[in-house]
Amino acid sequence: MGRHIAFVNAPTVGEVYPTLPIVTELIRRGHRVSYATVAARAEAVAATGATVLPYLSGLPAESNRDLRRPERADYITTVREAFLDEARATLPQLAPYFRDDRPDLMVFGMQSLAGRLIAIGEQLPAVQFQSFQAANEHWSIARHLGLTVTPRPGMPEHQVQLDTFAAAHGVDPDAVRAFQPLAQLLLYPRFMQFRAETFSGRHHFTGPCTGPRPFQARWTPPDPGRPVVLVSLGTVYNRLPGFYRTCVEAFTGSPWQAVLAVGERTDPAELGPLPANVTVAATVPQLDVLAHAAAFVTHAGMGGILEAIHAGVPMLTVPQTPEQEVNAQRVAELGAGHPLAPTATAAALRTAVENLTTDQGVRQALTRLQTELRAYPGTPLAAALIESALP
């Protein structure tokens, strides 16, 4: 008999998309899934068959051109503050859903403090998932990069703010500190995790969870005779019109067919006249484009990296955040791509793409990684682990 499983997640593409095949599989197995998300993700979530629980996010919209990338030294503090503010905005909206229709299991994203607090406050069994490299007492992004995490002047430290917020909503701060989900799903392969040997027990490397995206239009190359290069810097810190103009210049007059996914923060008109072999769009069906691509210029988000490896596409990495920095380092260590300086000239970018696609070492590494990646169970394992946590 099916059970009620609730998903609460951060509203970004990089967090939502990896969970959609899992939701589809749980529904196929007979469970009822309710998924809290924002209007921009509602169509994608509804396509799985889940019930959409709508809420308004306090995070900047993907069309917000005023969003600026934090200074590197302040990044982790800024992100912690942003997701605590998100919990302040969303917990009052989400908690009534689960009091009125109590789930048998809460599945929440690592960045969703509201989901965690609801699970603790309502004493729900819970599973946590994340799509970026995990931390433990042996390794973290901050320690790896030598970043110091300090509160802002005049602000209490993050733990004090969290304790105060939890107590204000009737959740014992000691219970928050002691809380351990029944399982932690890492939606990527073990080979992408630094110090992977130190993660065990509740941590499960499921590998990528991918599947059809019926909410996206299909894509085929306009000119099948040209090699395809995809450029995408994700959906958050992607307002970089100067970089995109460099890409247009790099591939103008070349044999390449360039596809630039510039996000909603950049107006394609800012890039100037486009040659026939360069396509610019806010978003593209990335799985379809990678199926035809010979190279991928990427911000090194975990989802894009895994999709590229699955398709056997070498990468030039241009990370925008610390978690993307460590991903890019891992890609380079594994031999699946090369770093690209964000200040690269058009000539340097085009040369880097050409060198990347003729690098036999990269080709051999990708073949090995692709085989290893495709051996991961992915969605069936993630669904089975969630089912095993049901009371």
UniProtKB/TrEMBL annotation:
Keyword Nucleus: no
One Pfam family it belongs to: UDPGT
MF terms (GO), sorted A to Z: hexosyltransferase activity; UDP-glycosyltransferase activity
Record keywords: Transferase
Biological process (GO), any one: antibiotic biosynthetic process
Keyword Transferase: yes
CDD domains in the cross-refs: GT1_Gtf-like
Family statement: Belongs to the UDP-glycosyltransferase family.
This protein's name: UDP glycosyltransferase
Organism annotation: Catellatospora methionotrophica
